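In the design runs reported in the main text, the only information available to the sequence generator was the tokenized backbone. The following block is the verbatim input for one such run; it is reproduced so that readers can re-run the procedure and compare outputs position by position.
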């Protein structure tokens, strides 16, 4: 996905959150939908800002973080294992293809 599309989506989500928040329609769900759009807009905005740096990350680190995120979604109490493991792996920088 190209960077400008992510930026446009972030702006659209943030504008949608503002419109939903200040619209007189459906006060019951306005907070829920507005909060959802606000969170999406913030996440997409952060993704848009981080995209150039994310393209330079090594593949093993991306896979490790994604697997850790899935484990934390399924079993939240495993954060005591996952977070230090990712930090240690990032510091030690495994070299699977390095010549000896």
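Verbatim output:
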């Amino acid at each position: 996905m190209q960077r400008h599309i992510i930026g446009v989506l972030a702006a659209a989500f943030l504008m949608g959150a503002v419109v939903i928040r200040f619209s007189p329609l459906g006060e019951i769900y306005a907070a829920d939908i507005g909060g959802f759009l606000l969170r999406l807009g913030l996440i997409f905005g952060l993704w848009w800002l981080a995209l150039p740096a994310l393209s330079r990350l090594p593949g093993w680190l991306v896979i490790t973080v994604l697997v850790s995120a899935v484990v934390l979604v399924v079993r939240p109490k495993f954060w005591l294992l996952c977070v230090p493991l990712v930090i240690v792996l990032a510091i030690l920088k495994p070299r699977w293809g390095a010549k000896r």
